[in-house]
Design goal:
CATH topology of the largest domain: Rossmann fold
Mean pLDDT: 94
Largest sheet: 8 strands, mixed
Number of domains: 3
Shape: globular
Number of helices: 12
Low-confidence stretches: 1-26
Structural class: alpha+beta
Oligomer: single chain
CATH superfamily of the largest domain: Alpha/Beta hydrolase fold, catalytic domain
Number of strands: 44
CATH class of the largest domain: Alpha Beta
Strand order of the largest sheet: 37-38-40-39-41-42-43-44
Amino acid sequence: MFRNYLYRCGLLTAFVFAILNFTYAQFGQQVQWSEDGNAIIKVVAGEIVQETVANPAQHTVIATQADLTPADSNKPLAVRRFSLAAAGDKILINTNTERVWRYDTRGDYWVFNPADKSLTQLGKTLPESSLMYAKLSPDGTRAAYVSGHNLYVEELGSGAMTPLTTDGTDRIIHGTFDWAYEEEFGCRDGFRWSPDGTRIAYWTIDARTIRNFLMINNTDSAYSFTVPVEYPKVGEAPSPAFLSVVTVADGHTVKMDIPGDPAQHYLPRMEWAANNTELIFQQLDRKQQQSNIFLANATDGTCTVIYTETDNAWIDSKARWNRDDPTGWEWINNGKEFIWVSEKDGWRHLYRIDRAGDEKLVTPGDYDVMGIDRIDEAGGYIYFSASPDNATQKYLYRVKLKGGEAERLTPEDESGTHNYTISPNGKLALHRYSNHAASHNGQVVSLPKHQTLVEGTHNELPANAPKTEFFTITTADGVEMDGWMVKPTDFDPSKKYPVVFYVYGEPASQTVTDQYGVGNNRLYNGSMADDGYIYISLDNRGTPAPKGRAWRKAIYKNIGISNIRDQAMGAQEILKWPFVDPGRVAVWGWSGGGSSTLNLLFQYPEIYQTGIAVAAVGNQLMYDNIYQERYMGIPQEDRTPFIKGSPVTHAQHLRGNLLYIHGTADDNVHYQNAELLINELIKHNRQFSLMAYPNRSHSISEGEGTQAHLSTLYTNYLKAHCPPGGRE
């Protein structure tokens, strides 16, 4: 999900890809710490190496390229991901991967034993690149994985493979998830070994009631063919989800007896409850306004609610504040308590909750916890990210497990956005940070004093590079918004310049963050600053900035309404600046930002003369149910907000210049949105420009020449309809 948020707001650069692939388990390689927490295991030049964190020169090769070369091959395995057995005596290797929706989560798996140098492939009788989410058992003697929507277990010694489910299809999905769960909850890996390795708990998604959306491929054969995507549109009931526990030895399966209609709730989180006899899971109602935490008896399936929370807007699942990873349950006190995140007091805070549901606030104060970085129970602290004083930045804090005042650990003189991967012992951290002017990668620091042990690399923008300035602006409605601006290279305050607004505006992402690369426009061919544009972005109410619950949830039932007004009123204030030319104002955005671009151009034509919208949701009733119902309610109860906030409703008011861009194979925001918008513009004789990219997905990245063509198209259109340069 997180990566798709970046697609949605048009910010996915090679730099961001590198960071994501290093850090986030579900996308790339998760950091593998040694047992003592002083070293990491990683792939270097095709070999698996253990490297001392505080002294990278000290390293040991665990698996050479020769070790990783199968007996019937002359090439070593190309390691995409790997993980270690609990005892550290085996390495599970993922290779030969293929894309499933967003990410390459299907592939082959091999097990390497450093002791005897054996290399064994799992699931050899199953189709190539069909295994998903393989995991070794806690004792390292077996592996479990999904193939063809069925769950399997394999004995490593004998290679004996046993299916634990047999009825998996494209609609009965065991051990993984459907499109909507993956896209909107970050749920991909759908099974869990019990701590003693005797049983496996898993999800089943029953998508038989969900219709296919048919995309059409006109280019890959003489006759066109359809590409079906199981996709629940807003207003459609969710795919029923179920939880079961199977005993590995005999296949005996117990289905959890979860209260309620399974087609009217979601199950975004589930884990073993710090023992071998119980599960703990979260149930969200369809509106995502009530969260129930259950303990479930793994033997007889009985479920008991231990904690309930409600919100009159929505409740975020873990994936929304924990790097798109909903896995794991933060147990403390020998499994008697866990850490929970809630906005119930108006701020996103940490709570201790025991098995009876009693709670204690851990992080009091008027600030938001942005994410948990490490729970160091032995040391008595929780490490977390926050930025109480500047919503565009992020820093490391810690608080005692018993609760109290938070302590900032990031040095005060290092302003910007900081990310930490903290060792299991809480003593070391891989640290990278950046701001709009510089980036720092590969640094290693000791905690809690934040002493630098390894300097890493430091990169600064060239002296002649465009400078990004941050500012705040208050609208006529009294809304204070953060913004950034890049002025023309040879800026002359006595002249008037065109302004280009970059917008996203929905709850999926901020655009105004103080980090390296902010202020760049990846679609512009050349330098906007050198050519004489002012480039600006603003974050409206409803963006996920650490400004408290009221800020974030002001957008409830208001997407396309309040966020659009905030953006327009912010622009109105900016147009009062003496160096801004009100006759040359453009706006652009991608996905949710494309929707915002359309709404701004249609609803406020007196402000914006030119818009470039990419992959936009033209009609909110055409998007998926989990996302749109979370923020807009259920349309059967009230369709008015959906209609009022959709660009197609306002298309008749287009007066300026519109370039609309969409990929015809977009399985996220369907090309259907483009055609609905086109029809509405035709109906009202509104002239516009259109570029459809055949068989390109939401990222419009596939196909030879696509990136260059899109960049050229964007740049030429902007220059033609919003000419650059200062004017007297």
